[in-house]
Amino acid sequence: KPFRLKLRSFESSLFSPTSFPRRRPHFELCQSVAASSLDNLNVLCMEAKEPDKLARFLQFAARASGPLSGLAAPSAASRWRQLDGHARTAMRLLARARRTHRWCKELPVVRSIPKSLSIQDPIDRVLDLLQKVSLATFMVVDPIGHMRQWRSLRGGKPAGAGTIRLGLKLCCFSNLVGACTQMRKFLVLDPSSEDRRRGEFACLIKHLLLVLQTAHLSLLYQTHHALAGCAGMLTSCMDLQARWPSAPVAVSKGQAKASAES
């Protein structure tokens, strides 16, 4: 009996928590690593904007060139008819290639949503939240439609085209809310600050052009392929001008947000 008591005391002392201290996880280190990883992912997602905007300009130029060449009523064997066919093919291929650049683009938008909650004006807060939530939803829905077109998900090409049009409707709503936000900013600006008024007005026009082209592409309100193509070319030129390395332009916050949406 004394031996058993000694054995139990030895076992309790051997397997006590003080004998084998647990290594506590370094929560601060894990949080810093996670934060830096998200920042690096944001930088990775925001790269390659300039080639994407150039491809966007060419895509909408091809969309506009088809109807414009059709005004001449070319014959089936003419070069204009061949140019129309090549333009349609280039437009479809560029649209598919650009759609892959939107993957994971919703992460920076989702991470910026908590900043919208700190806006003092309740109307601006609601508008900013609506714009960001609809934009992030569009960037989530668009790859789903793309994968349905690849037949990687159930539904096939018709369902994929419908999903993509649903995402474009969300993008149209996001730009419509952005246009309302830019209108409010433009109206409250001091008339003496001409540079800021010019920048906010350009961003307002850009949002309206994006509403026009996304409403046409989503079949929400169809106008004309040439009109939508010219609107896309104008917005692409505005993005390329703002990022032109030899002539840097002071871009307002609203204009940078609009370029990220497109």
SSE map:
Elements: H1 2-14, H2 27-45, H3 49-70, H4 79-99, H5 106-111, H6 113-116, H7 122-149, H8 156-188, H9 194-217, H10 225-242, H11 253-261
Describe this structure in words.
The chain has helices spanning 2-14, 27-45, 49-70, 79-99, 106-111, 113-116, 122-149, 156-188, 194-217, 225-242, 253-261. 30% of the residues are buried. The termini are far apart. It is built from eleven helices and no strands. With 262 residues, it is an all-alpha fold. The model is unreliable at 19-27 and 247-251 (pLDDT under 50). It is globular and about 85 Å long. Helix 7 runs antiparallel to helix 8, helix 8 (156-188) runs antiparallel to helix 9 and helix 9 (194-217) packs antiparallel against helix 10.
